[in-house]
Design brief:
Blueprint (H helix, E strand, L loop, with lengths): L6 E5 L8 E4 L11 E6 L2 E11 L13 E2 L7 H14 L3 H8 L13 E5 L9 H10 L7 H8 L3 H10 L2 E5 L20 H16 L4 E6 L5 H14 L3 E5 L7 H11 L4 E3 L5 H13 L4 E4 L11 E7 L16 H12 L3 E5 L4 H8 L4 E5 L10 E6 L13 H12 L3 E5 L8 E4 L16 E3 L4 E3 L6 E2 L14 E4 L3 H11 L5 E4 L6 H12 L5 E4 L12 E6 L13 H13 L10 E6 L5 H8 L2 H15 L5 E10 L2 H13 L7 E14 L2 E11 L4 H9 L9 E6 L5
Parallel strand pairs: 8-13, 8-14, 9-11, 9-12, 10-11, 12-13, 15-25, 16-23, 16-24, 22-23, 24-25
Antiparallel strand pairs: 1-2, 1-4, 3-4, 3-5, 6-7, 17-21, 18-19, 19-20, 26-28, 26-29, 27-28
Helix pairs in contact: 1-2, 1-10, 3-4, 4-5, 6-7, 16-17
Bound molecules: adenosine-5'-diphosphate and zinc ion (ZN).
Length: 721
């Protein structure tokens, strides 16, 4: 631009209606996408230039843009992505922008290029706060004062005090390590004929340099990862950046090592527990295009991509791609949206694709590549059903006699068995045997779950913890509190008693996190344990070569829920967990305990007949007008006072516009009627596929302003019921 523009429309990372106008000072060169600092009230804020306007006779009251950052502007594609996402989910664009600016370090000035690290000397005085800071500082990463303070959850004054005491020393902030250039021929297997054909099909799509969604549909262990690596290599060869999205849980070391072997260098990683400096490195590397491969959780979509040319969504059916707090969005759907805006292909990979995706394939909107054989082992594990109505188990045991015998034989043969139960903790429910009182969370309408290893009761909705009471809090009878039903911890207790010789590993997110969990998974892979007990954490992505038997303790959990995707979830989970068996030299099998053996889904599972399951599921959804045949949206109204919240919800119901093809259900108490002390009511909006549900919602909510403690959250395409 030769002439300086007069006005900058700056989007701020706040829930505002749109960008705010600022005057561009003489001589300041801005372009759309520039990161700037602008005043807002008494504050200075970072924002992004959304548009520039030349306007003569400008409003004299406008304030000036303060500073502009010397970094690559946020590309147009990304800005359009933010606008689209904001319109689709009815979420202020500023809230979406906030997800992009998730690296405060990237915006620090030269003053902030000083870091602190721990010294040998102890501070004069030790407090829990100081100890936390030192513990983090001793991990060996020099960090900025603000970042160190944030990581330790203390104020920066604590850092200053420790520096004064000599327990921390100031050093120059180390330079960010550059990202190495991937070596496209570093590794990779000689692909089988089928794999080669699949890889070729994906490469051809990448070569088109257009938007196209491809489903990579292959049974577990068929080599989907190896195949999509080839698509990634093709996009990299064309000079692009690639994003490999994983459901958060799957960001494991072995997987990252596979990426590293294939591309000869460690990929950039993006997830919620990165250190600030690494966060900054990845953020900057993505912005300047030097980070070529990013393996990340859903939020990696919002990194400021310079020239993204391919997104691979692994395990595309995973519900972990749906974010429920903050901006509720679905990362798989938004990856497809990003691809359509950026005109590049998106690969969706799964052994159990979502019904949404399969119907898009049926409709010809998505292409598909199939892998039908397991690599080097043609047969998939056989799935057997155990009819729990017909077996007699000892009271208080959850492993039925037939499953017990199979596990015993497996262990005796020197093989590994897995018992799967998708329930954390010791028992989902605790009751008083004298009065029937059940222990509930004081903040949520939900039972407290006993966690015996931690010796606590825990609410799985808000994280509330309390000790297990000895006496009933209601009738005060002593010693009558009993656990009801099993969680993994209780199952492990039973297993320890009934298989005294077994080396048992429990894999649950409560018991181990981070490196501990990675180590445990590695030990299982190496066969150091022979009986593994776990939640869905173990069901996915892992490769346990010694595992030959999978026992599913309760297959009915999701089927019995009110979730319209309960059937789909059950299918996916069963197929995934069964797929852990028989990945090594020996064939594997799965035994599924169910009270519903005659259920069509269980029958289809037993026969390994995906098509019959799918046809039945499609019919159910189509009849009910549920996705992907119809559309859903939810509005959650919450507030501190139940009556007030309900009144507000009812008044909102009265002004719902009447629109053909749209049904408004509710308000009704939300499936979890109280969370964190807030009462919740819900509307469910069912719309025909061709109806613009966003326009309807906008019309309805146009003048609605919740007051006081009341709040309103729209959830387009809700997932969790
Ligand atoms: P999926 O992603 O479909 O579950 P993976 O890509 O993880 O399958 O492959 C399963 C296992 O088979 C992995 O250990 C992988 O390294 C191995 N594998 C896949 N394809 C080949 C091949 N062509 N040659 C050798 N090993 C392979
Ligand atoms: Zn709670």
């Amino acid at each position: 631009m030769t002439r300086d523009s007069a006005i900058a429309e700056v989007l701020l990372p706040l829930a505002l209606d749109g960008p705010y106008s600022y005057r561009v000072p003489e001589g300041m060169a801005l372009e759309p996408g520039s990161y700037v600092i602008v005043p807002l009230g008494p504050r200075q804020m970072i924002g992004v230039v959304w548009a520039l306007k030349d306007e003569a006779g400008t409003d004299k009251t406008l304030r000036d843009v303060g500073e502009v950052f010397d970094m690559p502007p946020l590309p147009e594609t990304h800005r359009r992505f933010i606008d689209w996402l904001s319109a689709y989910y009815l979420e202020p664009a500023g809230n979406v922008l906030r997800m992009v600016l998730r690296s405060p370090g990237a915006f620090e000035g030269p003053r902030e290029q000083i870091a602190y690290r721990a010294t040998e000397s102890a501070p004069k005085r030790m407090t829990p706060q100081r100890a936390r800071v030192l513990e983090i500082a001793r991990e060996g990463f020099a960090m900025r004062a603000a970042e160190l303070a944030e990581a330790a959850g203390v104020g920066t004054s604590v850092i200053k005090a420790l520096a004064k005491d000599g327990a921390l020393e100031a050093v120059a902030l180390p330079a960010l390590k550059r990202f190495p250039e991937p070596d496209l021929n570093a590794g990779g297997f000689a692909l089988s004929k089928d794999q080669q054909a699949a890889a070729e099909a994906l490469r051809a799509v990448v070569a088109q340099r257009q938007h196209k969604v491809m489903l990579l549909d292959g049974v577990t262990g068929s080599g989907k990862t190896e195949v999509y690596f080839e698509a990634m290599a093709a996009a990299l060869a064309a000079g692009g950046q690639v994003l490999l999205l994983l459901p958060e849980i799957a960001l494991t070391q072995p997987f990252l090592e596979r990426v590293e072997r294939r591309f000869g260098c460690e990929p950039a990683q993006w997830h919620s527990d990165l250190r600030p400096r690494e966060r900054e490195r990845v953020w900057r590397g993505v912005a300047d295009g030097t980070a070529k491969i990013v393996v990340g959780a859903r939020s990696a979509l919002f990194l400021p991509w310079k020239k993204l040319k391919l997104i691979v969504v692994d395990e595309e059916h995973e519900s972990a791609y749906k974010q429920d707090d903050g901006v509720p969005y679905h990362a798989r759907d938004m990856a497809v949206l990003y691809g359509s805006i950026g005109k590049f292909p998106v690969v969706l990979s799964s052994a159990t694709p979502s019904l949404e995706t399969l119907v898009n394939v049926d409709r010809g909107r998505y292409g598909v590549v199939r892998l039908t054989d397991r690599h080097g082992r043609p047969e998939l594990p056989e799935i057997g059903l155990i009819d729990m109505k017909r077996v007699t188990s000892e009271p208080g045991t959850w492993i039925s006699p037939p499953l017990f015998d199979e596990v015993k034989t497996t262990l005796e043969q020197g093989d590994q068995a897995l018992l799967f139960l998708n329930r954390r903790g010791y028992a989902p429910l605790t009751l008083c045997r004298a009065c029937g009182h059940r222990l509930e969370c004081p903040n949520c309408a939900a039972s407290l779950v006993e966690h015996r290893f931690r010796r606590q009761l825990m609410c799985h909705h808000c994280g509330h913890l309390e000790p297990m009471p000895k006496d009933c809090p209601s009738c005060h009878t002593e010693g009558k509190m009993v656990p009801v039903g099993p969680g993994v911890e209780r199952l492990a207790e039973e297993a320890a008693v009934r298989f005294p010789e077994a080396r048992i590993a429990i894999l649950s997110s409560d018991l181990s996190r981070g490196t501990l969990l990675r180590d445990a998974i590695r030990d299982v892979e190496e066969g150091q344990f022979n009986l593994v007990i776990g939640t869905q954490l173990v069901a996915k992505g892992h490769h346990f070569p010694h595992l030959t038997l999978v026992g599913v303790v309760d297959a009915d959990l999701a089927l019995e829920s009110s979730d319209p995707r309960g059937g789909e979830r059950t299918w996916a989970l069963m197929a995934q967990v069964a797929g852990r068996a028989g990945r090594g030299a020996k064939p594997g099998r799965a035994l599924v305990q169910t009270y519903l053996p005659e259920h069509p889904l269980m029958q289809a599972l037993k026969k390994g007949d995906r098509d019959s399951y799918l046809n039945q599921e499609k019919a159910i959804r189509e009849n009910a007008g549920l996705p992907p045949y119809g559309r859903l949206a939810a509005i959650i109204i919450s507030g501190n006072d139940a009556a007030e919240t309900e009144r507000f919800a009812r008044s909102l119901g009265l002004i719902a516009p009447l629109v053909d093809g749209i049904t408004v259900l509710g308000p009704a108490a939300a499936p979890i009627a109280m969370v964190r002390g807030r009462h919740r009511f819900r509307f469910l909006i069912k719309a025909a596929r061709e109806v613009n549900v966003q326009a309807f919602l906008r019309l309805w909510l146009k003048d609605v302003k919740p007051k006081g403690s009341l709040s309103l959250q729209v959830d387009v395409d809700p997932y969790n019921f």
